[in-house]
């Protein structure tokens, strides 16, 4: 997908601190961390919304959700973690390539703002 930041990171055209990669996903550090540990898990297929997802893309997302807990040591998830998927304007989605935020390393509050 042209002009998609995360497609460019997946293609290696923009640098990122990679934590894990396979045929389904890339996991890298968020450039502006909102918790002590903040990673992004990005499926290697461009779609914006869960509502747009094909069967194949849903298999990729399933692989993401299976892999994340397997990386608990590498990603510092031992004491718990939070997964966030921002969808659309009210959620503040800024990159329109679906991604899972992985937040950990500290106690987290619960606020929508
Ligand atoms: P969202 O607001 O859910 O679309 O999340 C987009 C995330 O991408 C934000 O947390 C940004 O800090 C992060 N981000 C933006 N540019 C980069 C980049 N070049 N490398 C890593 N993370 C980025
Ligand atoms: Zn993309």
What is the total tally of β strands?
A: 5
Sheet of most strands: 5 strands, antiparallel
Identify the overall geometry: globular
Beta-strand share of residues: 15-25%
Q: Mean pLDDT, as a whole number?
A: 97
Q: How would you characterize this protein structure?
A:
This protein is α+β, with helices and mostly antiparallel strands. It contains three helices and five strands; from the N terminus they run H-E-E-E-H-H-E-E. The protein has a five-stranded antiparallel beta sheet with strand order 1-2-3-5-4, covered by helices on one side. Strand 1 and strand 2 form a beta hairpin. The radius of gyration is 14 Å and the shape is globular. 19% of the residues are buried. The model has no long low-confidence stretch (mean pLDDT 97). The protein binds adenosine monophosphate and zinc ion (ZN). Zinc ion (ZN) binds next to helix 1.
């Amino acid at each position: 997908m042209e002009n998609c930041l995360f497609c460019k990171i997946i293609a290696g055209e923009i640098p990122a601190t990679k934590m894990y990669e396979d045929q389904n996903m890339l996991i890298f550090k968020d450039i502006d961390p909102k918790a002590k540990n903040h990673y992004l898990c990005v499926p290697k297929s461009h779609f914006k919304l869960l509502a747009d997802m094909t069967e194949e893309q849903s298999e990729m997302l399933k692989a993401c959700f299976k892999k994340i807990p397997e990386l608990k040591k590498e990603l510092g998830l031992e004491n718990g973690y939070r997964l966030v998927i921002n969808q659309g304007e009210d959620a503040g989605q800024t990159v329109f390539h679906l991604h899972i935020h992985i937040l950990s390393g500290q106690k987290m509050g619960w606020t929508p703002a």
